Amino acid sequence: MSNRKKRGAASTLMPQTRPYGTEDVKPTLKTLAELTGLAVTTVSRALADAPQIALETRQRVRRVAEEIGYFPDRAAQRLRTGRTNVISLVLDPHEEILGYATSMINGLTEALRGTPYHLVITPHFSDTPPLDPVRYIMRNRMADGILFTRTEPSDERVKLLLERGFPFICHGRTELATQHPYVDFDNYAFAYEAARKLISAGARKLCIILPPDRFTFAHHMRHGFMTAVREAGVPFEIAGDVTLDSKSEEIRLAMFRLLSETSPPDGFICGGEVSALATMAAAYDKGLHLGSDIHLVAKQTSGLFDQIRPRVETIYEDLAAAGATMGRLLLRRIAEQPQVSELQVLHSI
Amino acid sequence: MSNRKKRGAASTLMPQTRPYGTEDVKPTLKTLAELTGLAVTTVSRALADAPQIALETRQRVRRVAEEIGYFPDRAAQRLRTGRTNVISLVLDPHEEILGYATSMINGLTEALRGTPYHLVITPHFSDTPPLDPVRYIMRNRMADGILFTRTEPSDERVKLLLERGFPFICHGRTELATQHPYVDFDNYAFAYEAARKLISAGARKLCIILPPDRFTFAHHMRHGFMTAVREAGVPFEIAGDVTLDSKSEEIRLAMFRLLSETSPPDGFICGGEVSALATMAAAYDKGLHLGSDIHLVAKQTSGLFDQIRPRVETIYEDLAAAGATMGRLLLRRIAEQPQVSELQVLHSI
DNA sequence: CCGCAAATTTATAACGATATATTTATCGCG
DNA sequence: CGCGATAAATATATCGTTATAAATTTGCGG
């Protein structure tokens, strides 16, 4: 009632003497209500395009909202609705795998584009338990969903998130009985194909540098590798002292040592770009020629290897696509809580 | 008064029959007030360690808070105080400079560690005006401060942010009359030193690949380069068709063409890792030998070039350090609004 | 032109915290 | 014993939004 009387307030839209375009009205629903002579509730629903608000009213409100530059206060929405409109990407330490995070983030932001969702980066510091970031996000209600990488066979994060029913998508699989959503690259196929390529290129003894054994994808790679070498009956070796997470310098030295042994491998599978370069450097330092003395297949996740000479055989993993898929799946999961089975995406090579 | 009576409520801490450790009380100030028999206000201030709350009370509140797993609701705090406890990093498109974003993010998260601040990534899509992300962040009150990169001499973002008095730190400088905070690498020195190195290595004609001309640091690099070549009276060339932002493939082709000309340059300065690799690839394809036929100095921002063979001369820019500095400066700026001069940090080589 | 349903709009009460102003308890001192 | 000063705690209002329930207006058959 009393609001009705205030309809004329619209004329006081710029009461202060200010240059046009710098309206100093506070852009809130309340202001909007005063300007339109409607109730705050009505304005709110009008902007939400609620069908029970007359079309004409909705349009009018929308017009005035635009005029005063109204944008809903995310904090207030968040407090009221309980939704943060945020998803969190847990960034693991030691991800020197060049551009790993960047590619994924690029894909993610593409997936979030046009949605109200934002991406916050939650770091996982190497001196703290892996569960910390996840716990932190849940307890502080920091996000509506979580993304993380480097999944382990019996991943505690997965267990906890499943237990709490908190939306998440992980990059990589577990070996848990319970199904859960994930996005993964077919690292079995990668290693298998890589081995096949090396063998048909003439390599006579293969070597693979694996990720740290605690990660599920290390098992997949090993399995793919083992299957290929066994099928072909080719001698092989698994780089022992060193993993894809090792410092590049260490990898190079380890590979140098390996190449100095009697009957060293001549075919190398590197699951990352840095390890590939380190292996190449070791071979170079050893005076070995890539393509004749030794062969190498690397996993490529950036445009980098297109510029490496001598040319290196690579298998491409599209991390931006993985990020985009993870983002989309997570949003879907947050919105509808669908069956897990729909959400298990395996990016094949 | 009536609250006093409720002191006994502490015994109803877990009224439901639930396994210990899964308290289902809502962890809010209200709950805490009921449990302690204090007023909500008191609890709030107790947790804030306000001196006008008795020490004994503060400790008691803190104990109970811990017991029920209380953590303040960020949305509520944000709504009430107007602070978001968020800083936003605007990620530019086309940052293929491997790990550029990752390094910076790593530094940033290190700087934010232990603070209540979070990092959100606001993408700047290449098909939208550069001002959009900044406008977006300010109007939606998405963050308390903004970080961005690739600063231009007359950067619109800087102008807008200064005008609005919104806290920000940019990576790179402007040429605006007004002072403003920034963190920058000394790209003048980089190019100057690189040219000196090439000349003393025996290069007789220099070439530099610059960033797109719209960025301030392109001017710095050019200036450093020009100063060095003029001082030494050495012939030079500036890669014309191609910039550090060009696709690596294009850079390689351009360099290949350049090397095919009569009396081509034999000393190259590459402001980024990708362009360096592309240049090396072009030389390789041309049959030229690095270190004798041609010389190259690259800017290194990752451990990558330590594994590149033949070895490449590099000058290191520590982007993680830059990120950390930017983070710290921004927090300081948000907190105290200090003099700009304290906030202008130039990372020298 | 009454009355009842459908179409609109509104009032009220949260969400969980904090700023401001006030009240109540405690104490020293004349 | 009472007074003012200090210490400690409290009440109230508010941030900007939305969910719920209630109220009003409108339309239309009878």
Automatic annotation (TrEMBL), chains A, B:
GO MF, one annotated term: DNA-binding transcription factor activity
Residue segments, region Disordered: 1-23
Membrane-spanning residues: none
Keyword Ribonucleoprotein annotated: no
Top-level lineage group: Bacteria
Gene3D superfamilies in the record: 3.40.50.2300, lambda repressor-like DNA-binding domains (1.10.260.40)
Coiled-coil residues: none
UniProt keyword annotations, A-Z: DNA-binding, Transcription, Transcription regulation
The HTH lacI-type domain, residue ranges: 27-81
Pfam families listed in its UniProt record: LacI, Peripla_BP_1
SUPFAM superfamilies found in the cross-reference section: lambda repressor-like DNA-binding domains, Periplasmic binding protein-like I
InterPro entries per the UniProt record, alphabetical: HTH_LacI (IPR000843), Lambda_DNA-bd_dom_sf (IPR010982), Peripla_BP/Lac1_sug-bd_dom (IPR001761), Peripla_BP_I (IPR028082)
Keyword Cell inner membrane: no
UniProt name for this protein: LacI family transcriptional regulator
Organism listed in the record: Pseudorhizobium flavum
